[in-house]
């Protein structure tokens, strides 16, 4: 069972839910929030291997290049320009599609690889963990997410996603069997939850909602879920004890009260996943 | 000599567009013919690399001087690589910009603003 965890709004508790559920269920934990992966802070796995993530970018062989500019016209990402004296490559805009190589009639373009980040593979006493890490200043997270997803070798896995509903989220949740949308009972939480809901519906992924920092059992998120026929998997209270554990880098399930809460959420999750 | 001024509209009384890559129009002033020509900036439609697209268009038109407000690192690198002079100004019309340039009242741009500056904080 592949379960993705997304939110719409940032800072609602995706990683809190993902790490605690991974530990509760004994599922592999995969951090696809490669711009700021922080699940390992709480799970503290021992890193056993790391892989560099590389993408291809063009380089020009000036012995062959005639400055014809075909590559400039063909590039859909504006990553190549012709100054009239040389061909400038803007590597960070390149999507590694290889079109420039195909259109060059002089065979003057050679691709070289460029490192944009890495993937760490680790393990705790109970579960396997993977995280992607995009190098600071690099704009494109997609290739790292795709590579991580190709490395998942457990059948039961929780995928922690980036906030928002961008390509990075789409790449992370595609092919997952179920999605958990983590939100909070604020207007911002509701606004972005609605966007995330539209995304998973469009992608045909069954989903449920977890409400974090929940003060009241009935709130604007529960109203929204009721109106839209969405399953609520659980509510995590707005509790200083949680903030305390979190600030020390501890999992909530290290506390008895919250261990039973996550067991309950896990049980409900298994039930609804079977029915979806 | 051909001068390109980034423009908000397509006439010589319009204000200079202080953004380079995402300006609305290029006002092209031909110093010999003493005439203006206005063309839409193809960079404005770019999903990414607007400054590069705009700069490439300017290179293709064999422009010698660019007058704008601010420009980003990629456009800057590309224009400099083509030996195009870049001058910056604050609020002015297209006609005033040409006049200021002729009177040597403009400062040459030597540093760029961060990427996506002209998008008002959106990346």
Automatic annotation (TrEMBL), chain A:
4Fe-4S ferredoxin-type domain mapped to chain residues: 56-85, 87-114
InterPro entries membership: 4Fe4S_Fe-S-bd (IPR017896), CobQ/CobB/MinD/ParA_Nub-bd_dom (IPR002586), P-loop_NTPase (IPR027417)
Pfam family, any one: Fer4
Span of the signal peptide: none
Recorded superkingdom: Bacteria
Residues spanning the membrane: none
Protein name per UniProt: MinD superfamily P-loop ATPase, contains an inserted ferredoxin domain
Organism this protein belongs to: Paramaledivibacter caminithermalis (strain DSM 15212 / CIP 107654 / DViRD3) (Clostridium caminithermale)
TrEMBL record, chain B:
Record SUPFAM superfamilies: Nitrogenase accessory factor-like
InterPro entries in UniProt: Di-Nase_FeMo-co_biosynth (IPR003731), DiNase_FeMo-co_biosyn_sf (IPR036105), MTH1175_dom (IPR033913)
Pfam families documented for this protein: Nitro_FeMo-Co
Transmembrane segments: none
Domain Dinitrogenase iron-molybdenum cofactor biosynthesis: residue ranges: 13-102
Protein name: Predicted Fe-Mo cluster-binding protein, NifX family
Natural source organism: Paramaledivibacter caminithermalis (strain DSM 15212 / CIP 107654 / DViRD3) (Clostridium caminithermale)
Lineage start: Bacteria, Bacillati, Bacillota, Clostridia, Peptostreptococcales
């Amino acid at each position: 069972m592949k379960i993705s965890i997304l939110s719409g709004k940032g800072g609602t508790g995706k990683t809190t839910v993902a790490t605690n559920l991974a530990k509760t269920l004994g599922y592999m934990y995969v951090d696809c929030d490669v711009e700021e992966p922080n699940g390992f802070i709480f799970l503290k796995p021992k890193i056993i291997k790391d892989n560099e993530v590389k993408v291809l970018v063009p380089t020009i062989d000036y012995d062959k290049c005639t400055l014809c500019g075909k590559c400039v016209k063909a590039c859909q990402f504006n990553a190549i320009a012709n100054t009239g004296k040389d061909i400038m490559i803007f590597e960070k805009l390149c999507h590694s599609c290889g079109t420039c190589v195909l259109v060059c009639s002089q065979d003057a373009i050679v691709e070289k690889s460029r490192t944009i980040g890495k993937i760490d593979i680790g393990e705790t006493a109970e579960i396997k963990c993977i995280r992607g890490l995009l190098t600071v200043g690099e704009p494109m997270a997609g290739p790292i997410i795709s590579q991580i997803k190709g490395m998942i070798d457990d059948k039961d896995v929780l995928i922690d996603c980036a906030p928002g509903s961008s390509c990075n989220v789409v790449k992370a949740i595609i092919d997952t069997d179920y999605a958990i949308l983590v939100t909070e009972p604020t207007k911002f939480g509701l606004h972005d939850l609605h966007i995330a809901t539209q995304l998973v519906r469009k992608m045909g992924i069954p989903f449920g909602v977890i409400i974090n920092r929940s003060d009241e059992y009935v709130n604007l998120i529960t109203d929204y879920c009721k109106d839209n026929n969405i399953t609520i998997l659980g509510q995590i209270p707005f509790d200083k004890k949680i903030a305390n554990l979190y600030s020390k880098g501890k999992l909530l399930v290290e506390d008895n009260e919250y261990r039973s809460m996550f067991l309950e959420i896990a049980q409900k999750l298994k039930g609804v996943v079977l029915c979806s | 000599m051909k001068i390109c001024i980034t423009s908000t509209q397509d006439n010589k009384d319009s204000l200079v567009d202080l953004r380079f890559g995402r300006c609305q129009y290029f006002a092209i002033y031909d110093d010999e013919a003493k005439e203006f020509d206005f063309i839409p900036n193809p960079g404005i439609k770019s999903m990414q690399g607007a400054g590069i697209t705009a700069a490439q268009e300017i290179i293709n038109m064999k422009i010698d001087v660019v007058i704008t407000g601010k420009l980003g690192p990629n456009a800057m690198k590309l224009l400099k690589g083509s030996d195009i002079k870049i001058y910056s100004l604050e609020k002015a019309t297209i006609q005033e910009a040409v006049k200021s340039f002729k009177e040597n009242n403009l400062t040459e741009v030597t540093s760029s603003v961060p990427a996506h500056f002209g998008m008002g904080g959106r990346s």
